Each structure stands twice: as structure tokens, then as C-alpha cells.
Amino acid sequence: PKPTIKMKIETLQEALTDVQINFPFNNLRRLLKWDDHSQRLPKAFGGACVFQLKQLREHLKNFEEFEIHYIEEIGGTHSVMICMHKVTGKLILMDPFLLHKEPIDLSKILAERTARKFAIHPTLAGSGQMCIEIRPGSGSSFQITLYYNPWNEMDYTVYAFNASKLLPHHPSITEDRIKSEVPELALRVFNPEEGTTTLAANVNTGTLVIRKKGLHSQKYYEATTGFDAELARVSERVHLDVSELLKLFADARKIYSGFRK
User: How many CB atoms lie within 10 A of CB 8?
Assistant: First the structure.
């Protein structure tokens, strides 16, 4: 049978999920790239949104039904992918960082002028911990709000975009992106059955913590019981020894601190 647009969107979903699982989000790679450390980083170490979108584009390089575009956040440092269906003109939004389960029909939101919420992978959404809301603005503008905790109205991040400013080329790793200020250095691995595990370091003190979000619970580990075991699991996921992973965090923090002087 001739592939329908629904079947084609399912192919997009498979590519999206693969990147979410096998190319974890982290904000270290861009710093390590600045100091030429990135040559020794395994693919499984992952990277920030620009690196994740590059991996997603690789998955779709032979997928001819859609034109691949990108939108950069207005005045910010985040990017998303927009797949435009060549026949219908439908705009499909994908962003591995947001961990949304399915590709998002952006055209419908802009046409209906109505805010909509979208599912995060069930292991995260099931406990009500995270959700995405897309709200159309004037013209082709729209906002994506990532709610980390619905019981805390202040616990969210807003990204503003304009769908009329589609970029045909992959977003670049600019010096501003590399040097942008962050509250912590973080590596987040994702498993659809278990949720997320984030290894994070305080940019000032270097103190390491591990945060886990799953279907029924959130857990927090410092350098106490359980931390080493969780650290070993994260290291295994990114194909590094624990000592190698900790050195990358130390190196990234040193580079980041140099930018703040």
C-alpha cells in the first residue's frame, strides 16, 4: 500500500525516540568542543540541542517526503527541527531535548490559534512531573513551555520561536552558545521504561548530584549511599569509564569557569 502521511509521521517518531535514547542531552560537549576535547567523546555521550538535531537529521537524510528546516529561539540558545511535508505543507515539530513522545503538528496549532498540551514519554508524564504546552502568538510566532512540575507554577522554561523564520541549514555552534551561562553542567540519559537519570555538577563548587525521574517517583543522590551505583549506570550508558566521565565534568567546568573571568 502507498505510505500515508500518518505512516510517514510514525517514521519521524521512530527517529525521534532513537535520538532521545541513544544520544543523551548534555551541555558539556559544546564546552569540550571549544577546547578540542570532543575528538575523544563517544557518540553515546550525546550533546546539547544542536548536536541532537544533527543526529536526528542523519536519521532522516533519505526521507524525501519532508523538507528539513530549523527554527532558532528568538534571542536565545535553543533550536528545534521543523519537518515540512512536501505535498501538504504540514509543519511537524521535533525536539529530542523536550522528550515529547510523538512529533507535534505545529500547522494545526497555528491554524486553530489554540494552545495545546502534549505528552512527555509515559514514564515522565505518568507521575504528572512534566508536560509541554505550545501556545500560538501573533502571526507565525509561538511559545513552547516545558513544565517540570505542575504543582509548582514557577518551575518551567519558556522558549519563543517564529515559524516564518525557517532555516534550511543546521544551526551552528556559535561562540555565544558555547559561552552561554548555565546553572549547572548536566548529562541526562533517558530510558522509556525507567525515565531520566541526570548527573549534574554545580558550576561554582563542582559538587555532583544525581536526579532520577520515573513513573512513580523522584530520587535524589549526593555522594552518599546509592550515588556510586547510579554513577556507574550513567557511565555505562555513555560508553565511558567512571573516571573518564568525571574528568570530562572537571574539564568542562574548568573551561566554563574560564569564560566567566
Answer: 17
Q: Which residues contact 103 (CB under 8 A, 6 or more apart)?
A: 9, 12, 13, 16, 83, 92, 93, 94
Q: What's the CA gap between 110 and 103, in Å, rounded?
A: 15
Q: Which amino acid is at 189?
A: V
* Predicted model pTM: 0.89
* Residues forming beta bridges with residue 81, ordered by sequence position: 70, 94
pLDDT at 36 over 70: no
User: For residues 100 and 135, what is the distance between their CA atoms, to the nearest angstrom?
Assistant: 16
Taking alpha carbons only, the member of 220, 193, 213 closest to residue 124 is: 213
Cell 567512571 -> residue: 242
Neighbours of 213 (CB within 10 A): 22
Q: Return the C-alpha cell found at 180.
A: 552561554
pLDDT in tens, 69-109: 999 998 778 999 999 998 889 999 999 998 888 899 999 99
3-state secondary structure the chain: CCCCHHHHHHHHHHHHHHHHHHCCEECCHHHHHHCCCHHHCCHHHCECHHHHHHHHHHHCCCCCCEEEEEEECCCCCCEEEEEEECCCCCEEEECHHHCECCCEEHHHHHHHCCCEEECECHHHHCCCCCEEEEEECCCCEEEEEEECCCCCCCCEEEEEEECCCCECCCCCCCHHHHHCCCCEEEEEEEECCCEEEEEEEECCCCCEEEEEECCCCEEEECCCCCHHHHHHHHHHHCCCCHHHHHHHHHHHHHHHHHHHC
